[in-house]
Write a structure and sequence with these properties.
The structure is a homodimer.
Chain A lengths: L4 H14 L12 H7 L4 H14 L2 E4 L3 E4 L10 E4 L11 E12 L11 H5 L2 E10 L2 E11 L16 H9 L3 E12 L2 H6 L7 E11 L5 E8 L4 E7 L1
The structure holds a DNA duplex.
Chain lengths: 237, 237
DNA sequence: GAGTGGTCTAGACCACCTG
DNA sequence: AGGTGGTCTAGACCACTCG
């Protein structure tokens, strides 16, 4: 792995972006500058930039340059849309609350995905969070990470309050795929209380399995949504 | 548009695939053959193939060739997963039934997405379908297409029972993006009857707006799912 | 071993943006 | 006008698949 020149340049630039050498909206050095500095052809430089573009780290613009894009398009990332608002406008104030910090524990019985031997033998790091829109609790999320080479995560505060930011910056683990199962269920007493609903009200439930840049390493999440006042929006192309 | 050589080759090959010149699993001519025949550099040929790959029409394999992939990765295409079955195995028997064929009518009042003037001035083509898994009705879908340059669609049978296949083969309209809003709602009497549920049972509801290769042309769908026995699966990367 | 796609070089001209 | 990314050529060598 990592044998090729365009891959080296790709990793080098990604690392610079992640470590803040270039900030959101900055221009990367031009393709000519990069090819001179790294002693590569422009073709090879373009291949590296093309990878960055696919991953959403940069946006290219003819006549201008390669623009760094930190708030990049993420894998089916969720947004909340209020019914009354005009679509695409007036961002809601979304806040995150960690109910139970990163905590080492055993896997739950009858876990919702089949685990392999390696995952079972490691215990799991558990995280319980609530997402609110304008003080209304809208989502309850329980996340399970196999405890493999994640020294220092337990009990720590998350970087920028985000698990994914923490994983990429501290452990070079990047989420790059997602498998999900969606259902509508009835709220039980606990869900009703947590999400400000009545028992038996409909709740949106999602099981997720995330694939990562570390081969064989997966992250699991169970998400519950109160969709009474907000729809769960997502965009794909 | 369509000024560049790699775009011409891209369109040419796509058209051949769509018209059945190459079938699923076939190999395209090799990059060398394509470059000789079309008097292009291999670089340019590779750019065309790279586009086909992005769109999912082919899969490349080193040492072998470019393999045509008809059942290609589609935009958040839905699959149904039974709870008892092993994930990824034992495909369910899925069947489609058209309840109301492609029918010209007025837009519903308070349509779920804002329509632009052009869309409003055209009427809409309406389609109501049910999808069943092993004779259980699982999904009810209502589709609305602005009636713009779609001569001959009304009252016609769909090719291979698929709206998207019909659109691309008859009208060169390809769906390439999707915006969706998801909620959990209570079944009303009509939904309960159609989906074999009791009133007030939870139902998964999705509004969708599809973007297409025809600029400014969108397709709208409203989908209702009975998720009592099947989850709605989807995979993204 | 012959053929395939993957990587890479060293050039060229073009379309677009900005000072 | 000068610099940027987009397209394209004409080569070369490498890694992989298959008979």
């Amino acid at each position: 792995m990592q044998d090729y020149r365009y891959q080296s340049l790709h990793q080098f630039l990604k690392s610079q972006i992640l470590h803040g050498v270039y900030e959101d909206g900055d221009l990367l050095p031009s393709e000519n500058e990069l090819s001179q500095f790294h002693k590569l052809t422009r073709t090879t430089v373009r291949q590296a930039l093309s990878e960055l573009q696919k991953e959403g780290y940069i946006v290219k613009q003819k006549g201008k340059g390669s623009i760094v894009n930190i708030r990049r398009k993420r894998l089916g990332l969720l947004s909340f849309k209020g019914f009354s608002e005009v679509i695409g406008h007036s961002d809601q104030k979304v806040s995150n609350t960690v109910l139970s910090g990163p905590l080492l524990q055993n896997w739950p019985k009858d876990f919702f995905y089949d685990l392999n031997a390696l995952e079972k033998s490691a215990r799991c790091i558990y995280l319980k969070r609530i997402r609110s829109v304008n003080t209304d609790p809208v989502m309850l999320e329980e996340t399970y990470l196999p405890n493999q080479n994640l020294e220092g995560l337990i009990g720590k505060k998350l970087i920028k309050g985000s698990l994914f930011s923490t994983l990429i910056l501290q452990y070079q683990i990047e989420v790059n795929s997602m498998d999900q199962d969606v259902r509508a269920i009835k709220a039980n007493a606990h869900l009703a209380k947590t999400l400000s609903l009545n028992e038996n009200d409909p709740v949106l439930h999602i099981y997720r399995k995330y694939g990562t840049s570390r081969p064989g390493y997966f992250i699991y999440s169970s998400l519950y949504f109160n969709t009474e006042n907000y729809a769960i929006g997502s965009y794909f192309k």
